[in-house]
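hey m, so remember when u said the C-alpha cells were messed up on ur end? i reran from scratch. heres the input so u can diff it against urs
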Amino acid sequence: RLNQQTGIESISRLSWKEFEALLCEAFRRQGFIVEHSGKPTADGGVDIRLSKAGAVTLVQCKHWKQRRISVTTVRELMGVVSSERAQTGIVVTSGSFTNDATAFASRNPIRVIDGTELVQLIASAQPGATVPQKNTSNQMSPPAPTIANQVSCPVCGAEMRLRTAKTGKHAGSQFYGCTRYPTCRGLRNLSAAET
C-alpha cells in the first residue's frame, strides 16, 4: 500500500484503518519499532507507539482531508506524552493545523505533520527515494536522504530531522532541526547539511 501512494489524493481515499497501517509501515521503514493499537473506538489519544534507541514517541492519527486540527488535539496528546513519560509525540493529519495548534506544538516536544509533510514522509519511505526537487504541488516527490544517519546537531551532536518552516518570512522553506527541540535549538540549513 505504501509503495502505491502518489499524493494526498490517494492517501485521502484510504479508510482510517488503512491510513494508520500506512503510517505504521512508513515509520517502520525509518527504523522504528512500531506498536499499532488499531482500535476504531477511543484509544486514549494514542494510535501508534514508536520506539527507537530507547526513546518512545506516541502518535495520534487524524485522517481528515479538509479539517483543520485544533490546539485541543495537540494538548491532549501532550498530556498523554507526559503521563506515559514518553519522549515525544506526533500528530499526523491528511488535512492541516490551526495556528494555535502549530504554536503549541513548537513550544513542546510535539511534532505536527500536516498533509503536505505527510506526502513527503510517505515518499521518503518509498523505494528509490532520492534528494527532492522543489515541489509546489501535493504530488509525491523523492525526499532528502534520512537525516538521522547523516547529519548531527552542531550544538549538542544529536540526530537532526528535516523540517518545514510553518510561519514567518521563511515559511515553506526546509531546514534541519535538532530532534531534541525544544531542549536544544540547533539548526542547519538544507544546503549546508548536504555538503
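this time it looks ok to me. Residues 130-150 have pLDDT under 50 and may be disordered. if urs says something different then somethings off w ur setup not the seq
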